[in-house]
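testing teh design pipeline on a random one, pls ignore if ur not involved
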């Protein structure tokens, strides 16, 4: 268990030449995992290093966000049109493909210029080396169950909020905190029975989040109303599935030892 190793992995992906969408994707995955596990170090002997590393990861992820947004918009829109757009008018399908192509070109231009990658690498330059896997594990062990229980309570609170007020910000919080909990369990308690359910929930909410972003971008195009309606219908179904799955994960109070060991 060493989030600083994930930071180094992200650095490695960002140094790759030529830069690619896959390198950005893998770097962002490593940064998300690092930030999740760094939360376990709060209030421990490694808290200062964890806070500095989390801040560096946050700045790096923010620098990479525009690249991620272009790629996600292109892939999500193209997938929506190809898999679920059979009932769309031909001009709407053509418009969707054109917008997806435009986003891919914008991403390619940003990658070739390299500014987001340079900013992300600079942000990670301030990240400390960390105490190593054994040192980090020793530091977080005394409060591990408390931290995991707190992360579970966040997910439970987000589920209740999304069920009561099914708005995009509520589902965003549920996606973010359930993904953080999954990463923490994968590192600290890999045998936990919660991991697979959290992984499925994350996949559903990830697509829901991508469709929300696509709908917001399509709002700028007055001739994309049919595409927006298609995205809204798909998002509505995903939200219903997410709430059913989240109910099984978060409907009961759970202690830290129960989360680690599974039900």
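output:
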């Amino acid at each position: 268990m060493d989030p600083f190793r994930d930071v180094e992995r992200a650095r490695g992906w960002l140094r790759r030449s030529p830069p690619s969408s896959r390198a950005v994707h893998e770097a962002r995955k490593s940064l998300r995992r690092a930030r999740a596990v760094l939360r376990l170090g709060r209030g421990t002997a490694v808290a200062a290093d964890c806070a500095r590393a989390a801040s560096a990861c946050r700045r790096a992820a923010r620098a990479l966000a525009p690249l991620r947004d272009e790629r996600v918009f292109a892939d999500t829109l193209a997938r929506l049109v190809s898999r679920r757009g059979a009932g769309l008018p031909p001009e709407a399908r053509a418009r969707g493909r054109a917008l997806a192509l435009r986003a891919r070109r914008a991403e390619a231009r940003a990658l070739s210029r390299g500014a987001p990658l340079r900013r992300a690498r600079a942000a990670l330059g301030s990240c400390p080396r960390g105490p190593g896997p054994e040192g980090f594990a020793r530091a977080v062990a005394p409060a591990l169950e408390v931290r995991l229980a707190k992360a579970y309570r966040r997910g439970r609170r987000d589920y209740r909020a999304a069920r009561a007020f099914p708005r995009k910000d509520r589902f965003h919080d549920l996606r973010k905190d359930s993904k953080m909990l999954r990463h923490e369990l994968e590192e600290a308690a890999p045998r936990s029975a919660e991991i697979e359910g959290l992984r499925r929930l994350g996949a559903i909410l990830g697509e829901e989040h991508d469709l929300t972003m696509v709908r917001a971008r399509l709002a700028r195009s007055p001739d994309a109303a049919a595409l927006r309606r298609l995205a809204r219908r798909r998002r509505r179904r995903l939200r219903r599935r997410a709430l059913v799955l989240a109910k099984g994960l978060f409907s009961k109070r759970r202690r830290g030892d129960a989360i680690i060991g599974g039900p």
